[in-house]
Amino acid sequence: MVAKLAIAGLGNCAAVFLQGLDFYSKSNTKDLWHPEVAGLSPREISIVAAFDIDSRKVGKQISEAAFASPNVAKRYHTIRQGHVRVAPGVSRGDLPPHLRGMRIQKTDSARVCKTLEESGAEIFVNLVSSGSDVSSTEYAKVALQAGCAFVNCTPTLIANNNRLMATFQKAKVPLIGDDLMSQFGGTAFHKGLLGLMVRRGIKISKSYQLDVGGGSETLNTIDETIKMAKRRLKTTSVASEVPYSFETVAGTTDYVDYMGNERTSYFWFEASGFMNSGLSIDVYMRSSDGANAGNILLDVIRATHGVMKSGKPNKTNEVCAYGFKSPPKPMRLDEALTRFSDLYIN
Predict the structure, then answer these.
(1) Domain total in the chain
(2) Looking at residues 159-171, what average pLDDT do you find?
């Protein structure tokens, strides 16, 4: 049994994911969080198609495109599965900031659909840049037309679009999303610490999370419109961990080019305990965006394949809540992990 995968957007996240997929397909998976999900190991995932609009990547094999400019992801491993060439993707006039003024290569939706059908792709993963909302929606419609499950890793509200979700459900094709949550990134850490405080009876009054990073994803996110949209999503995700109202803000504050694919996150919490005793927490964390997403993306893809083979293609809540910041039906971090594990972890 092999899960056939297509990817839209060969950015830093895709670059590290492709390295990890190749590495764990040929090496011991003992340090992988979940060696098997829904009965699949990494070696049972095959990349059959890839799309991008950056002329520096289109036409190249994925093993080469993964490291083409402007990608700055770390080279952890040499990708040996590179026979798939990057095809032109779709663009609906919503170019991300890092590509404005650059030469792009795009095609129409019909061509993308034909490529998906000819490749035999079963799952289409959307990893395009934040802010490409119209293009992301178009990719979702193309996936549906081609009969592919769609995994939306971007902040664009696709799985939360009731009309789109109803269309996917009617066609009995899984729709998964929105906004991929890293294994141990800022959102997961923020939610986890808030959840711990709630379980220990600490009354939270305020918190914030401020992120600074490099790479094109951070560069795109500091665009004012994209920044505020993503801040709303992250703040809502963080706040859902606490069963009462409190003041919180979470989002990217700045871009530093030489940080590459690295990210620093600053957290502050104000709370109180017994006799209204004060409690204040300051935390600094540094992580790598692409690598932090790899485990979760690998799990989500395998679980999506499990949903497809289960005979219940509309049963996607556990996958969405486990892997994404803005699932259609949010769950607490620990509840989402427990329910996902019960269904998909062997």
Answers:
(1) 2
(2) 97
